[in-house]
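S.,

Sequence below, as promised.
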Amino acid sequence: MQVEVEHVTALRFDDGTPVRAASAVVAFGGGWLVAQDDATHAAWVRPGGVTPVRALPPVRGLDTFEEARGTKALKPDLEAAFVVPDGLLGDLPGGDGAVVLLGSGSSPARVRGCLLRARGAADAEQPLVADLAPLYAAVARRLGIEVDLLNLEGACVVGDVLRWFQRGLPDAGVPTASVDVDVRALLAALVGDARPADVPVTGERRYDLGCARGVGLAVTDAVLLADGAVLVSAAAEDTPDPRDDGPVVGSVLAVLDDGLVRDRVDLPHVHGGVAKVEGLGVVEHTGDGVRLLATVDADDPTAPSLAVGLRLRW
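The prediction came back faster than expected:
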């Protein structure tokens, strides 16, 4: 594979404040919805501007969270997103007018999911929010790890399941992996028609993505390709646990066929440094590859996240 950077944009809301800690990106209402892992609202990026969209209610009266203020433990850590397939919400439309955001599960504050719907091109409905703690516990059991080692950072719909990726800590013996979650059952749990504990979790896979500068690479997001393979972003972050940030020493894109790594390519540096890609979205499939929108987290609440256009060729 070959990859090139086509454009880089600093993400700011229309009032000038930075889009913080971009952690997932998904098509939404004629634009893109960018999750902020340290905030209760997402950023709706459209040609006319960038506006906030509430994803979760405030936590103890707060909408943003950061280590310097001692509130990082409260953050919802929305790390994965997917477009709801058509036909799975009863009479309500799916497609890019309905998306789901999911917490990472790396602490009890991070086990919620929310369903967001666009109300035309100008507004979004109030989110439907559910505590999915029993589902996260089932994922941990399926992966054979303790719940406090969960760090579910990417997801994509493959057929009738959500392939949900556990970033893991390869250097600490916690491999990057995935499970399959029944999409219809997950949506039923989100809208209150089923218990989260009853959502089927199957299909554990583990992946060896190699290392960058001696640090194990672990999946940060995933998208489905036209041929049915899954493309993932992966970062080598030198950190001791799923909650603390560390220096990112390398990042790659990799194509996965089932549990095997079919191909891998290093990501170019962006603004002179390693790009910590945390979100991936497919812009278009081309005859020789795919165009992607990637979001890059600066790990600094005062710095705007970046939207990076990537061209990947086979």
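The first strand starts at residue 2 and ends at 10.

Coffee later?
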